């Protein structure tokens, strides 16, 4: 999809940002001496790299070998093993076999001089639209975004890492708010590029699909069918189903079910309604049907979810 539509119509970006749900877990600060490569494992979900200091290279097994510079953001698709190189031809290599765990911020040092030539902040990134659509779930290639012209960005990333340490109240909320600001700058920059790898954003470019998404999010518990949703889109059933699957990688009713169960989990976690009431409000006619679908979606029954 051409992202020019986002640049020309700010209302599309506003609607998108108003529905964002952001979670970010910075797990590592990677530091490399000159001549070193740091090989990283395939992330379980999209990963954000932010080059804090220095210039270098990003390499992947598929032959990708591209320069990266200070104040650039890089989004790595789920399942993509990759490496950070402090220079084009490396002399030494440190391999990380699994995602680091331990302290709130894990420091990885590739080298022995004590003075890093390149520093990169890394973290897993979960960005959802309307609690249902993962912005980076089907990302097909690496996104490299030059943010060096945005003076606010380095401070925002420093704040993001700072909020990962300590135990002050509200840290997850504040991390999400900071990451949302970074995403705004990233999307603004992406809007200047001729093509976008975020395939499902084509829904925001197509008012027919956008109407359907808004309709589902406004009332997921309504008696939606493929026929009723195709009428909202003003499309034939077959054309609507094809366009929808091409944009969201799932059928219309699969997305409706996903939104319903995400909304149900949120309602259950607040404790303001019984399991029967929650199931009814999100569109399930029986408790048994709701419980079965909920367990398939979350891995636990509604009653276990309430107790967790």
In short:
The chain has 308 residues and is of the alpha+beta class. It contains twelve helices and twelve strands. The protein has helices at 4-8, 10-18, 153-162, 171-190, 202-205, 207-218, 226-233, 237-248, 252-270, 275-281, 287-298, 302-307, and strands at 20-32, 36-40, 47-53, 56-60, 65-68, 72-76, 82-85, 92-95, 106-110, 118-129, 133-134, 143-146.
What does this structure look like?
This protein has 308 residues and is of the alpha+beta class. It folds into 2 domains: 4-198, Jelly Rolls, CATH 2.60.120.10; 206-307, Arc Repressor Mutant, subunit A (Orthogonal Bundle), CATH 1.10.10. It is built from 12 helices and 12 strands. Strands 1, 3, 6, 9, 10, 11 and 12 form a 7-stranded mixed β-sheet that branches. A 5-stranded mixed β-sheet has the order 5-4-7-2-8, with no helix packed on it. Helix 3 (153-162) packs antiparallel against helix 4 (171-190), helix 6 (207-218) crosses helix 7 (226-233) and helix 9 (252-270) packs across helix 11. The longest helix is centred in the middle third of the chain and has 20 residues, at 171-190. The two termini are 41 Å apart. The model is unreliable at 1-9 (pLDDT under 50).
Count of the domains: 2
| Main pleated-sheet profile | 7 strands, mixed
The best one-word shape is: globular
Question: What is the succession of H and E elements?
Answer: HHEEEEEEEEEEEEHHHHHHHHHH
What's the total count of β strands?
12
The CATH superfamily of the largest domain is Jelly Rolls
Strand residues, percent: 15-25%
- What is the fold-level CATH name, i.e. the topology of the largest domain? Jelly Rolls
**Classification by helices and strands:** alpha+beta
Helix content: 40-55%
CATH architecture of the largest domain: Sandwich
CATH class of the largest domain: Mainly Beta
């Amino acid at each position: 999809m051409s992202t020019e539509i986002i640049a020309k119509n700010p209302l599309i970006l506003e609607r998108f940002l108003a529905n964002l749900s952001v979670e970010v877990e910075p797990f590592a600060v990677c530091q490399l001496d000159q001549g070193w490569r740091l090989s990283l494992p395939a992330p379980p979900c999209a990963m954000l790299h932010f080059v804090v200091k220095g210039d270098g290279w990003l390499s992947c097994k598929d032959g990708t070998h591209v320069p990266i510079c200070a104040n650039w953001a890089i989004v790595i698709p789920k399942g993509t093993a990759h490496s950070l190189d402090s220079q084009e031809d490396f002399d030494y290599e440190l391999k990380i076999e699994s995602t680091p765990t331990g302290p709130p911020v894990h420091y990885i040092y590739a080298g022995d001089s004590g003075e890093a030539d390149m520093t990169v902040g890394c973290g897993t990134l979960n960005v959802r639209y309307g609690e249902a659509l993962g912005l980076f779930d089907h990302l097909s290639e690496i996104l490299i975004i030059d943010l060096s012209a945005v003076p606010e960005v380095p401070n925002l990333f420093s704040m993001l890492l700072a909020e990962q340490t300590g135990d002050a109240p509200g840290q997850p909320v504040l991390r999400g708010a900071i990451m949302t600001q970074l995403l705004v700058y990233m999307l603004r920059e992406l809007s200047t590029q001729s093509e976008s790898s975020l395939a499902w954003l084509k829904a925001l470019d197509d008012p027919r699909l956008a109407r359907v998404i808004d309709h589902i999010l406004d009332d997921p518990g309504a008696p939606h069918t493929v026929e009723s949703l195709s009428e909202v889109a003003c499309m034939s059933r077959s054309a609507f189903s094809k366009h929808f699957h091409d944009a969201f990688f799932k059928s219309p009713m699969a997305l409706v079910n996903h939104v319903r169960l995400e909304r149900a989990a949120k309602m259950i976690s607040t404790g303001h309604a019984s399991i029967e009431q929650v199931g009814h409000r999100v569109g399930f006619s029986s408790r048994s049907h709701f419980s079965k679908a909920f367990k398939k979606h979350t891995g636990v029954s509604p009653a276990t979810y309430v107790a967790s």
